[in-house]
Design goal:
alpha/beta, Rossmann fold, 5 helices, 8 strands, 20% strand
Length: 206
Amino acid sequence: MNLLILGATGRVGSHLVTYALQEGHHVTALVRSPEKIEISDEKLAVLEGNVLQIKDIQAALHGCDAVISALNTDKTTTLSDSIPRICDAMKKEGITRLVTVGTAGILQSRLEPDKLRYQSSESRRRSAAAAIEHHKVYTFLKDSGLEWTIVCPTYLPDGIRTGSYRTERDMLPEGGTEISVQDTAEFALSQLKSTEFMKLRAGICY
């Protein structure tokens, strides 16, 4: 499969690139700083560009079968500003499958089911800025017409790739407190071969 990976220099994104190449996929990484990509592989194409520039997205999407986004919020609106551009470019290229990495904050609350976790008493974060950005992405994708999945990890420490974790549709599995960056990347990549969480949020934790 030919994949476009966004956020490829980030914590989750860098592992996505590694695992995708290990599985034999051809990967295009659209990044602002190509020098941060430390992997050299004949199946990897690194393009310098900006996800806010339509022409950069279109160039990176050409010939791809699916998109995985691990873009960070970085205390800006780049994430929510870029998603309409990404989706529009995907439609023009005839690409329908999009997997994004979000946050457990946009899953439904168990204590207050009519609210998202970041809006409820379950939230322990001092700032809701990142969750608000991911909420905007979720809202946009629901009406996008694309075949999307949002992977929603809880606390994300660096760790190891165990391949063993719990998932649940639209909610965080009960008692979940963390999931490694590595297992989050593995699960996100696996969604390209699965329809279990099609047009859904996937809560993931140990």
